[in-house]
Model the fold of this input.
Amino acid sequence: MKTETKPTEVTAILKPDSRRSFLKNAPLAFTALAGIVGFSAKANSAATCEATARQARGPFYPIVNQADKDTDLTTVQGRTGQATGAIVWVEGTVRDTACSVVPGALVEIWQACASGKYDHPNDPNTAPLDPDFQYWGRAVTDASGHYRFKTILPGAYPADQNWVRPPHIHFRIMKRGYHELITQMYFKGEALNADDLILKSLSASEQKSVIVDFVRTATGESAGVFDIQIKSVSPA
Done:
């Protein structure tokens, strides 16, 4: 089984092939992100850093302890293919409600593949699985509270007869001394957002905080910033 490594920078836990690709393309890819990150930091410095809205964990939280759960979900350990779908980079900063950064927080994500199928035995969706997609990843925030994932745009899928869930990524954030947070991130401009029952259950300000605007980078991939605020546990 692969040894877990705490990433203090993104290249620390990227797979070898992905790391070479990242280092080659990083100057171009993150030129576009620089403005977003700068804006995000300024916005948080002036805000009260309200806790990010809690949302349902959903029925498809991973139950198989896969060996490969690093920050690059577009490839799978031991396989040579690449996941189907449009590549997206998701990064952000974890802070507490006093706006202080939270280093060493575990950030988990899980999602459907491009067909809208989860790698979970209870998913009734008949869409095909993608053997080259990782489905579940983990990052540990660095000294600046920063995390980053490389993944793909998830597919929409039917939640019931009259409800199709929009593309979204599930997040779980944990650290001793803080309340665990489970939430979901959505993609700005997706038509299905307007009718999603889970997203609509949030207030207008909460919806705004979990819908992320992704921009096209010079490499043709998309990148977005999802900053997260968690609550510290009050001393006894």
